[in-house]
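User: I've been going back and forth on whether these two constructs are worth ordering. Before I decide, could you fold them both?

Assistant: Sure. I'll take them in the order you sent them. The first construct and its structure tokens:
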Amino acid sequence: MRKPREEMIAETRAKLIAAGRHAFGTVGYAGASMDDFTAAAGLTRGALYHHFGDKKGLLQAVIRQIDAEMTARLNRISAAAPNRWQGFVDECVAYIEMALEPEIQRIMFRDGPAVLGDISQWPTSNGCIAALSSSIEQLKADGLMVGIDTEAAARLINGASSHAALWIANSQTPEETSRQAVDAFRTVLDGLRAGKG
């Protein structure tokens, strides 16, 4: 029995994304050839063009997939914390530390910005700002965060964590840079905590 068309389309897209993700994660965007990942997926260039337009379109799809996985991981980290404030801090720190993971480092924080431009302008950035805004509103409502404009705080925290991750990903000593970034970031967040005294 033949598979429904929607299922075949989804399988083709998934194969191309998996092959692209593997290539981008191992040899990088510049080193990855369209023929390599279409062959790895058992598909043609035509399938790649049809579903993603070009190599850049495939990179965007891979980044969306990794971003969704990172978000799910961050949500689990936040949910596992003993309280809402600690969950917020743990989630922000974990995002920065993910820049040490080779696949995330190369695809999200090196090749992504090099090919797609400023990370703050990516379509996924709006979702990050919205999620941070929601967390900040809740922290303020619970009396855990100082009175601060929610959108401004969300954008500043998002920008600081993104730039910290970029700094780590492009550092000659990423482990050391990560420690520096995380220590400084914890201090910045602690400055936003209400009722410390």
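The second construct, handled the same way:
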Amino acid sequence: MNVNFKDGTWLNQPAGWLAEDASLTMTTDAKTDFWRETHYNFTRDSGHFLGFPATDDFTARIRIQGEFRTLYDQAGLMVRIDEKRWVKTGVEFTDGELFLSTVITDGKSDWSVSQPFKELEDFHIRVTLAGGAMRIQASRDGKFWPLLRLAPFPVAASYAVGPTACTPERSGLAVHFSEFSIGPAITTDLHDLS
């Protein structure tokens, strides 16, 4: 089911944003981020997130477009229970390159990066949550979906799901989101990348 971007609820609404029925453009504020404790010994819950309600057993997907150039520039999809239990997955600029990045947080954050493809200024993210397991996939074209991560994630009565963007080292990153949908969890085999 396609989601109307005008129906979301902001956590840390950016100063600059425009929601239309089928698209969202946001421009990040300064020093925004989501992170809890691990390695850096700080907690940040200041990133921008436009959330939509979901219950267990769902698949959400979104298209992300932007010019990511500064260390830790990031944008993607977030699944959130509360400030201590959330996932953000999408693109992140680190070590001079764009990577697909996933941070899973259950009390503390863990971070993984991969590069199944490098064309990361226009790509898709898909998250499936079912029975305490989260499958995270990315795609260049919305048709072929390499696996980024399979991980446990807490079962909850409800979740907030939607676009997120952060710029820990600057402000002014403009990100365009479109083709956002939330529906029943896909049931394809884990190795079926369609």
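Notes on the second construct follow. The longest strand covers residues 174-184. The CA atoms of residues 158 and 166 lie 24 Å apart.
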